[in-house]
Amino acid sequence: MPPQPPAPLSQLPVLIKGLLLACLAGALAGSASALFLWGLDQVTGLRESHRWLVFSLPVLGFVTAWVYLRWGQSVEPGINLLIDEVQQEAQRPVPLRMAPLVLLSTWASHLGGASVGREGTAVQMGGALADQLSQRLRLDPRERRLLLLAGISAGFASVFGTPLAGAVFALELLVLGRLRHDALLVCTVAALVGDQVCTAWGAHHTHYTLGPVAPLGVGSVLAVVLAAVLFGLVARGFAQGTQWLGARFKQWVPDAPWRTALGGAVLAVLFWWGGAWRYAGLGIPVLVEAFQQPLSPWDFVGKMGFTVFSLAAGFKGGEVTPLFYIGATLGNALAPWLHMPMGMMAALGFVAVFAGAANTPLACTLMAMEVFGVEIGMYALLACSISFRVSGWSGIYRSQRVDPTPLGQDPSGWTLGQLSARPPSPPAPPDRDAR
Asked: Can the keyword Phosphoprotein be found in this entry's annotation (predicted)?
């Protein structure tokens, strides 16, 4: 006999409890993001006013890595730890120290000018604070997982001012090709509350001028398809390059504090004497310029190289805003070649490179409509979907699982990190009965 659906009123207490928990998680994450964004503005302004602070990168890197080595090894995986905790049956509380450690270390990274982002910090703080709430309230495993996802959604939504994208981001984050619909309501509420609370604290988000959008037609669609393939290849290169260089760094300099200090010294020299200041920090001014005027066709290469190097050396922050920079400047460079509006192509690169690197095409499509307007929605969905497929089984979040249903049975239950480390399969032996 098939199971009977629950009576509607019987679910009301569960619904109310879930909404209250989502509101609490959103308020905590939104407040943490507001504090983080305020501090980020302060350290960025200080660095721009005193550019000699780039020479503090070796010291800041050494101290950050030493602190993590001493007190933060359990939270070193960052977002990947949150993904694992949602996926696993065992209850292992996320340490509260994840929030202050990633907050202070990201401020330190940006004070010295390391090319890192900010979403990793907000998501980790949101997840860590949400899990502390689940421990205090003694929630059962299912409720705890939903609250963790709510914290992730609220952190992402509040740091970028994109509640729709934040809600779906957490649902797409866990498994490639599968959404967690059971968490849709709590993630939506948490994302909305987190965004509103962050704004109420006075946090501001960058605004971009899109300009004209090409009318739908065969030529414009083909141009977007071609650009999306390139966006996906760049996303794949970024994810694999960060993983490869990070592994090489650990081989060359096994001691984490000295590894990050060495990386900081190299970055300081390149920023000061190598004429690479435009690739320091978040790079928001250049990102805004990508929508307004033609830029160097190699800007995306420079930002990609400096970000891969900064992350591989061990500096904390995130990847998303640098991926926005990489995608927008690549779209800016492609626009004249494809005879498409510059702002439109910058906007598509902005979201599509991130979609390919994070494996979150739906969240990135919603982000495009929230940031640039609904008129770009169809192009964004096309670009993000293609970039996601072209990037393949690569990504910046190594604990993401692969859904075997649409892709074949081989990778069932594997993470992206396990798949990338798996040796190639040997060829099948020949069939002796074949003639």
From this structure: no
